[in-house]
Amino acid sequence: PITRKLFPQPVSDHSVILGVSKSAMLRTCFRLGEALNAGCHGTRHNENIILELYARVTESWRDGLPWRKQHFVLRDLYHDKPPHLLALYGHWSQGQLWAADSEVFLHAAKARVIGTMKRDGMQWRLQILSIWEASWEDIRCVADVCCI
Q1: How many domains is the chain built from?
Q2: Which pLDDT tens digit goes with each residue over 66-94?
Q3: In this structure, what CATH number is given to the domain that contains residue 100?
Q4: Is residue 8 one of the residues assigned to a domain?
Q5: Burial of 71 per CB tally in 10 Å (0-12, 13-18, 19+)
Q6: Nearest Cα residue to 117 out of 57, 45, 43
Q7: Whole domain around residue 66: which residue ranges?
Q8: What pTM did the predictor assign?
């Protein structure tokens, strides 16, 4: 399994890189538990955390009219044990490219998911902003950058 170092500290308010601020933080996660911890911590502390999660989609289905949402059950890349994460994608019906990117998950596949953690009653849910299929090669390339 991929193990990563601690997340980097947020940039200062006066970054030398134009356009970079600490108003949003990207957290790249290769384990589901790691994503849950990072996303829930950010939500509880009122931080704007964007998650980039690599996971397996084991179930997915689409609602009909009028909602047109696609639901996902995400599992860890390496095992089927809990925790599992429910995710919701509302953009699939708003364009052919988005529909094609998410259609592959109506069957099981590995995914790169960009989203934010939301509270849904007593459970946590990932609100998906973008999703597409990922290969082990894609995952290893990103891990090489994040886990140096």
Answers
A1: 1
A2: 778 889 999 999 999 999 999 999 877 77
A3: 2.40.50.140
A4: no
A5: middle
A6: 43
A7: 25-147
A8: 0.82
